[in-house]
Amino acid sequence: MRLILLGAPGAGKGTQATFIKEKFNIPQISTGDMLRAAVAAGTELGVAAKKVMDAGGLVSDDLIIGLVKDRLQQPDCANGYLFDGFPRTTRQADAMKEAGVNIDYVLEIDVPDSAIVERMSGRRVHPGSGRTYHVKFNPPKVDGKDDVTGEALIQRDDDKEETVIKRLSVYHDQTEVLLGYYGDWAKSGQPGAPKYRKIAGVGPVEQIRDSAFAALSE
User: Fold this and answer.
1) What global pTM score does this model have?
2) Out of 23, 91, 156, 166, which one is annotated catalytic?
3) 7 burial type by CB count under 10 A (0-12 exposed, 13-18 middle, 19+ buried)
4) Cα 52 to Cα 15: distance, rounded to the nearest angstrom
5) Catalytic entry in 88, 145, 160, 198
């Protein structure tokens, strides 16, 4: 099972990625984790990436694709792999295609912006333990207080409504184009084209999980 998960920030990709990883016994590949591992290991690509990052630059697509190809040689990728948060642009998607990175499925988790804003801006966290609540879906027993310690809950900057709206705007501008990119490629019938599946990302987590598994078995 070699797949790419697509969807807006807050669509629940991380949660579903965990279920998919366990079911198919495949690693979740995130470019952030790969970069950190390559830098820590001092590989040739890691050293090159560190130079760019230390200078405050953005690591080039070519470097990222090099890291991806290296990562896919690792033994834990024998059963496949799951990309979450990559590719982010059509240029990166083209580079993956040119590098011969095979993809069986592209799974889109579709959630309306309004639901994402409600989902993320309602989150509250207990800083000491990391326990999370939601003002509507999973409220604490006492408003604004952690159930265990009674200490104040906070809203992380990432979860503030204006931040969520800004992140969604960036997604629509830069990454949403991939839905059409992979959808059109899937319809093309070209050799090596992935299957494209779209599921609704609203409702109980288990229901979304079952929809994902069903989509990936078609």
Assistant:
1) 0.86
2) 156
3) buried
4) 31
5) 88
